[in-house]
Write a structure and sequence with these properties.
234 residues, twelve-stranded antiparallel beta sheet, 12 strands, globular
Length: 234
């Protein structure tokens, strides 16, 4: 395994071309994604296949079941902050949407889906910046909206995350989520690569629950989407 001092960026120009193509022709792009993901229907995700991927990808485990490969299909910007919302797509049609590394929407889960995770602020703060905030959860099926929770963040330690592709220094952060309408606590964990002079901070790995007594989702950004810092003057 080649060890790198920091995670090497994939081609941002290639990402931009692919993702803009998604916007122009959604069905054609989804067909292309399916062709990529169809190669991963074997019992184990092949290392050689991941090495050959030209697009951002995540290895996802739900409730400790067999890992699945998810490909980044869409990147959208929202609000004045321009925070990126990333939608990761699986071969079975399910998807996970993340913002600042935090899961904010899911589709295709067997029992419950997270319809939206928001906050009383404009957008949930990035885990690496937050100390405390109030979250609002919406779930489906059935009408289960506007459940509030108090979120407190704690930085644990610096950790080195290693895969067969790279190694990356990260900040290990935990979030304790306490729902105010019923007695239930959750703990989410994030391993975040700090910002550099040329790139913004990004989540390398996370363990998150979509709600109380609901699915646990482990995400490893085996080929992360890394957003560069715009150094051009407006």
């Amino acid at each position: 395994m080649t060890k790198l001092p920091t995670l090497k960026l994939l081609s941002f120009i290639l990402f931009t071309f692919f993702l803009s193509a998604c916007s122009r022709n959604t069905q054609s792009s989804i067909d292309s994604l399916n062709a990529i993901l169809d190669a991963e229907r074997s019992p184990d995700i092949a290392e050689s296949h991941i090495r050959s991927l030209p697009y951002p990808a995540s290895i996802v485990t739900i409730n400790d079941r067999k890992p699945i490969l998810m490909i980044l299909a869409f990147v959208d910007s929202f609000g004045d902050s321009g925070a990126k919302q990333l939608t990761w797509y699986a071969a079975d049609g399910g998807s996970i949407t993340t913002k600042n590394g935090r899961i904010v929407h899911t589709t295709g889960f067997n029992t419950n889906n997270l319809e939206n995770l928001s906050s009383f602020q404009a957008t949930p703060p990035a885990p690496i910046k937050a100390m405390s905030w109030q979250a609002i959860y919406d779930w489906s099926p059935h009408y289960r909206y506007h459940f509030s929770a108090d979120v407190s963040t704690q930085s644990i330690e610096d950790e080195l995350i290693t895969t067969f592709l790279w190694e990356q220094s990260t900040k290990h952060i935990t979030e304790q989520i306490r729902f105010t309408s019923f007695e239930h606590d959750l703990v989410n964990e994030f391993w975040i690569a700090p910002a550099t002079q040329t790139t913004k901070a990004f989540t390398v790995k996370s363990t998150q629950y979509i709600g109380p007594n609901m699915d646990k989702v482990n995400m490893l950004m085996i080929r992360p989407y890394v957003e560069p810092i715009n150094t051009l003057s407006p």
